[in-house]
Automatic annotation (TrEMBL), chains A, B, C, D:
One BP term from GO: ergothioneine biosynthetic process
Top-level division of the source organism's lineage: Bacteria
Domain Sulfatase-modifying factor enzyme-like: 170-303
Pfam family for this entry, one: FGE-sulfatase
Lineage: Bacteria, Pseudomonadati, Bacteroidota, Flavobacteriia, Flavobacteriales
Protein known as: Ergothioneine biosynthesis protein EgtB
C-alpha cells in the first residue's frame, strides 16, 4: 500500500465511523473527557494542516484562520486554545463545514504526497497514527453520548464485536530473568515505547483469558462493591462518593442486569468479556480473587503467548518514562511525555481499536477512574 | 382573531425565530440557565400535549412515550425529569423529529379547538402565553450560545432592535397616597399578578428614560467596578470572584468597547439603551448616581407616564406573593409561586418580548446575578 | 444607669457568656457562617478601638498593629481583612492575649468616657448594640461548635430557656387600613429601622403562639420532607441535596427524636417552641397548614398583642430598604445597607438575645437556608 | 536500650515537640492534609490502645469509649471514624484530657511491657515507628498552622536545622547491571519495603548534593514558572490554577524573597538546601536543567555514596507494590498497601525525621502537589 493509499484509507475510515450519526450527535461534550465527534473530525485534520501543510506545502493557504484556535487540543506550543470543557458549546463551524475542511486538507495533502512523500513519511505516519487513536476515541465518545441519553439510541444494530468471547483459558508461566522491553520492530511507534531496555522479571503466571461478565457478576453478587477491604483507598472514596455499584453502562432493570452497547440496551451476555471498568475496579476484583494485575513489563514479555486485542488491559504499572526516553523538540514533544504522571498503563488493544494500529509495545494510559474505553482485566499471580 | 388563528400565529412565530439556525445550534446548553433551542421547541409543545391533549382530547395517543420525561421542565407533579443541566447532551430526538412532534400536536390541537375552544380557552391561553415566554428565552438563549462562540456568528444581520434609543427624558413625579396594584383588565394574566390590592406609596420621582450605554460608560470609566462602596456585599463578591468589569457580551478590543449583538460583534452604540446587566450592577449604578431603583409598585403606578417596553427593568422589589395570592391546584400551581424566593422583580417588557405579551401588571423575575435577558436600568429618587 | 455603667455591664456580659468554655473551644470555625468565640471577643473590642479610640482619644496607641487586620469583619473601608473562612485557623494571638486586648481597650474607653461621654454617646451606643448582637451570635456559634462534636459536650447544664413554652393561644385579627412602620421611640435603633413610613395592610389574622415541636412533628410524620408540593423550588433543592429531614440539631436515636441543646443531648420536649429551622422549612410548614407567614409589616403592627421574644420569627418579607432609608457615610454605612439582597427578615427576638436588646421595630435578617439562630415560626392567614 | 526505654523515649519525644505550643495551636486543621497537633497526640496513643492494650492486656478498660471513634485515622476495619476534614472542629476532649489519655495508656503499656515484651515486640515496634512517622507530620503540620497565620508566629527561635547545607558535590556513576532492592537488614521495616527483589538498572549518574535555594532562584528568575515546556501537563494546570510562583512559605517582600521557617519569617538563605516543593516543581526544575529525577531503585543502589537525610527526595517512581508484596491481614494491612495509587515515592529522610527512623530502603510517598513536608530535589542523568 502506498502512503497515499494508506492516507486515503485512514481518513475515509474516520468518516465511515460517523456515517450512522445525525448532525445533532456531532455537537455535545457531556463530560470533560469526552469530545464532540465534530471536534475529532476537525482536530485530526488540523494536525495535518498545522504540522505538515503549513510547514511543508509552499504557498499553502489555511482553510480558515480561526480553526487553528478552535481545533487545537493540548499543544501549548501552537498557541491559545479553546478550553477543553467548552468544546461542546461551539456550534459553528457546522458539521458540513468541517467535512469541507477535511476535503480541503485532503486535497492539499495529496498534492504534498506527490511532492514529498518520502521526505515527510515519518510525520505523515504520525498524523495517521494520531488519527487512528482518535478513531477509537470517536467510537467511545459516541458510545458515551448515546449511552447517556435516557432513550438509549442505537448506533449500529449489526455491531457484534462488543460481546467478544475468550478463545483461550489457563495460565502461562514465565521464568525469572532479564528481558528486553520496548519497541524494536520496523514500522511506526510512539516516542513513549522507546528506548528499548532491560528489565529483571521474577517468576510469574498470567492468565490467557480476560475476566468475563459472569466472573465479574460473582464479585458484584458477593458484595464486592460494599467491602472496603478489596479497594485501594482512593478507589473506595470513588465508589462511595459516586455510588458506583457496577461497570459503566450497566443498568439493573426489574432485577436483571442490562448494559448499553452500540446496538442499544440489552441483557448482559454472561460469557462476553467484561468491559468499561476503572483501574480501581480492576484492582479490587484482583484482590477479591487473591491475585493481582500484571505489570506492563510482564504483559509485554508474555504477549506472544496470550490471546489479546479484545480489551485494553489495565496493568499495575504507572505511566512513566522508560530509561533514556527522549522528549522530541517542539509541539510534537507534547504528544506523550507531559502526561507521565498519575495515569496507569493499559496494554494490548481493543475491539474498537483501528485496524493496523496495535502492537505489543504500545503503551496506552488513562486515569484510574476512567471507564469509557473498552478496557478489561487480565489476572496475574 | 379567533383562538385558532391566535394559536397558529404564536406557534409559527416560535418556528420563525429558529429559521436562521443551523441544526447544530439547536443542541447545546452552555450553562445551566440556558436551554437548547431544540428543548424550547419541544417543551412548549409538551405543555399542550401534557396539560391539554392528554386530558381533554378523547383517544389522544401521545407522539412518543419518552417525550413526557425528556421535555418536562420543572413540573414535579408530572414525574421524573431530565436534570436541567443535562439538556444539552441529548442529541436524539433530533431537530427534525421535534418539528414533527410540533406538527403532530398542532394537528391534534386544531381538532380540539374545533370541539372545545370555548371550554378550554383559559388553559389554551395559558399554553400560548407560556410559549410566548419561551420565545423570549429562545432568543436570549440563542444569543448566549452564539455570543459565547469565539468566532461570534451572526444570527440575523438585519436586526435593528437591540440598539433602541430613549424617546423621552426627565422625571415623572408621583404624589403620596393609596394606590391599587395588580391585574384588573380583561384578557390573560398570570397568577402572580393577582389579587389586586392597595399599597401606600410615598412621594417619588421616576425617570422617563432608561440608562444608556454612554451613561454607563461614565460609571465604568470613573472606576465603578473597582469601588466597593457602590455595591451590595453579595454584588461585590460577584464582581471580584467573576472578575466582572463590564456588561455581558462587552469586549474591549484594541482599547475600544465592543459588544456582541444578534448582528455580530460591533462597536458600542453610545446612545443605545444599556442592556445585559445584573441587578447588582443596576444597584451599584444607582448608588453611583446617588439615586435608587424604583419598587415594582412605584413602577406600576407610574407606568402610564413612562416610555417602556424596551428593556426588562430591574426593580428593588423581591419577588414575593401579593396579599391573597392563591397557588392554583396541581401542576399549574408550580408555574410561579414556588419561585418566590431570592429573585428580584423586573417590570415592563423588552425588545425581545413577543408581540401582545406585555402589560403593566406583568411580573418578571430573575436572580440578582443573571444578565442574559434584555434588561436595563430606570432610576428613581 | 450611666453610659459608663452600661458599658461595663455589656462588656462583662460577653465575657460571662464565655466562662463555661475551655481554651480549645475559642478556636474553631466549623463553617463559614460561624465565627470562633475568640474572634467575637476580639472583633467587638476592635470596633471600639477602630471607630472610637483611634478617632477620639488623643494619643491613643493601638494595642497591636496587626489586630486591625485580624479582627475586622466586613468593613471594606477599614482595609484588607482576613478571609472569613480562615478565622478558625488563626491560633495566635491566643485567648489570653485577646482578654488582655479587651482590658486594654476597656481601660482607655473609661478614660474617654470621662472626657467625652456626651459627645460620643451615639457612637458608643452603636458599639454596645453591636456587641450585644455579637453576644447572641456568640451563643449560637458556641452551640454550633459543641453541637457538631460527636460527643455532644454540655455548655451549661442549668440553662432552661431553650425549651420555652407558649403563654398564649388563638389568633389576633387586624383591620385593613393605613399603618405606620419603623422606629419612633426614644433610644437606640439601627439605620435599617428608619425612616418611619406608612403602609397599607389588608385584613389579616396572626397567631398569638409559635409553632411547637409537637406541631412540627405532625409535619414530619405526615411526610412533609418528602412532598415537594409544600416547598419553594429552592427549598426543595436544599432538602434533597442536603438530605434534610428534621430541624438542625435533631437526631433520631433508637427511633426517638432527640435534640442537642446547650444542656446536652436530650429527648425532644413536645410542648417546647420549635427552633432551628430554615425559612424554607417555615414556609413549607405554613403551606402544609394551609396558612402563610406574616409580612414584617403585619408583624410590627400586631406586635403589641402578641407573646414574642422567644424565637426570631421568620417573616415572608425580603430584607430591603424602607422608603427614605439613608446609608450613613463611611465605614458605619456598611453596617446594614449592603446586605439588603437575598435575605429574609426575622422579627422579634429570641431566648438568646441579650437583655435590653429588643424592640418591635428591630429587623434581623438571614439567608433562607440558615438555621443556627434560635428562630421559629408564627403563622398568619 | 530496652524496649521499655525505647517506648519512653519515643513517647516523650512527641510531647517534647509540642512544648513550644499554646493550647490554641493544638486545635485547628487548616487544610485536609494537615491534622491538629492534638489529634496526632491522641491518634498515636489510640494506636497502642486499639491494637495492643485492647487485644493483649487482660481486663484493660479503655480510657474513654468515644476515643476509638474520634481518633481513628483511616482504619476502616476499626469502624466508623470522624471525617478527616472535621478534625479541626472537635474542641473536646481538650488538650489536657489528651495528655491524660497518653499517661493512662503509657501506664498500661508499661504493665504490658513487663508481661509480654518479647511476644509483642513486633507490634510495639510498629506502634513506635508509627508514632515516629507522626512526629514528623506533627512538625510539618505545626509549621503549616503557624506559617499560614498572617502574623507568622515563631515556634522555636533556636532551630537551625531548616537551613542545612550540602556537604558534598559532583556526581556518582553507577554501572549497568542487576541489583537487589528492598529491606534486608535486621530491625524494623514497613511492609512496603518487602520483599527483596532484583532489578536491572542501566548506567546512570546521580548528584551527591541536593538543589539549593540559589539553584532554584535561577529557575524562578529565568521564568521557569511561566514556561509550560518544562512542566508536566497536570503540573502546568496546578501552577496556573493556583497561581504558584515559588515554593511553599516563600513570600516576596519589597522585592526580596523571604521564607517562613520555624524560627519565623526570614530572608532566603541562598546556600541552604531548597525545600517545600511539589513533585511538579521538582520535575520542571529537572527538565530546565536538562536532567531528570532518579528512580527509587537508582536512589537505593546509590544511597551509600550519597549525602542524604536532609530532605525527603522526590523520585520519578510511582508508589506501587514490590513483587511479592503481601498485605498483612486485618487493620494493620491498611497501613500501606491501600495507598499504592497516584502517589510518588520519596526516598531518604529529612531534617524533621525522628532520630533512628531512617534507612535506605524506606519508601515515603505523597501526592504530586503536596509541598508541606521537608522535601527536596536530587538530580540524575
Amino acid at each position: 500500500m502506498t502512503l497515499s493509499d494508506r492516507y486515503n484509507s485512514v481518513r475515509k475510515h474516520t468518516e465511515h465511523l460517523c456515517s450512522p450519526l445525525k448532525t445533532e450527535d456531532f455537537v455535545p461534550q457531556p463530560v470533560n473527557f469526552v469530545s464532540p465527534p465534530k471536534w475529532h473530525l476537525a482536530h485530526t485534520t488540523w494536525f495535518f494542516e498545522q504540522f505538515i501543510l503549513k510547514e511543508h506545502l509552499p504557498d499553502y493557504t489555511p482553510f480558515d484562520k480561526d480553526f487553528s484556535f478552535l481545533f487545537n487540543s493540548y499543544y501549548n506550543f501552537v498557541g491559545k486554545r479553546v478550553f477543553r470543557a467548552d468544546r461542546g458549546n461551539i456550534t459553528r463551524p457546522g458539521v458540513q463545514e468541517v467535512f469541507e475542511y477535511r476535503a480541503y486538507v485532503d486535497m492539499h495533502m495529496h498534492i504534498l504526497l506527490q511532492l514529498k512523500s518520502e521526505e515527510l513519511k515519518e510525520l505523515i505516519e504520525l498524523g495517521l497514527n494520531h488519527e487512528q487513536q482518535h478513531q477509537e476515541l470517536l467510537l467511545t465518545d459516541i458510545k458515551y453520548i448515546l449511552g447517556n441519553n435516557p432513550i438509549f439510541p442505537i448506533y449500529d444494530e449489526n455491531i457484534e464485536w462488543e460481546n467478544q468471547k475468550n478463545a483461550e483459558s489457563g495460565f502461562v508461566k514465565i521464568e525469572e530473568g532479564i528481558y528486553e522491553i520496548g519497541f524494536e520492530e520496523e514500522g511506526f511507534s510512539f516516542d513513549n515505547e522507546h528506548g528499548r531496555h532491560k528489565v529483571y522479571l521474577h517468576d510469574f503466571e498470567i492468565s490467557k483469558s480476560l475476566v468475563t461478565n459472569s466472573d465479574y457478576l460473582g464479585f458484584i453478587n458477593s458484595g464486592g462493591y460494599q467491602d472496603f477491604s478489596y479497594w485501594l483507598d482512593e478507589g473506595w472514596s470513588w465508589v462511595t462518593e459516586n455510588k458506583i455499584e457496577a461497570p459503566l453502562y450497566w443498568h439493573k432493570i426489574d432485577g436483571e442486569w442490562h448494559s448499553y452497547t452500540l446496538k442499544g440496551l440489552e441483557k448482559i451476555d454472561a460469557d462476553a468479556i467484561l468491559t468499561h471498568i476503572s483501574f480501581y475496579e480492576a484492582s479490587a476484583y484482583a484482590a477479591w480473587k487473591k491475585m493481582r494485575l500484571p505489570t506492563e513489563f510482564e504483559w509485554e514479555i508474555a504477549a506472544d503467548k496470550l490471546d489479546w486485542g479484545k480489551r485494553w488491559e489495565w496493568t499495575n504499572s504507572a505511566y512513566l518514562p522508560y530509561p533514556n526516553f527522549k522528549k522530541p523538540e517542539g509541539a510534537i514533544g507534547e504528544y506523550n511525555g507531559k502526561f507521565m504522571i498519575n495515569q496507569m498503563v493499559l496494554r494490548g488493544s481493543s475491539c474498537a481499536t483501528s485496524p493496523h494500529h496495535s502492537r505489543k509495545s504500545y503503551r496506552n494510559f488513562f486515569h484510574a477512574d476512567e471507564r469509557w474505553q473498552f478496557n478489561g482485566i487480565r489476572l496475574a499471580k
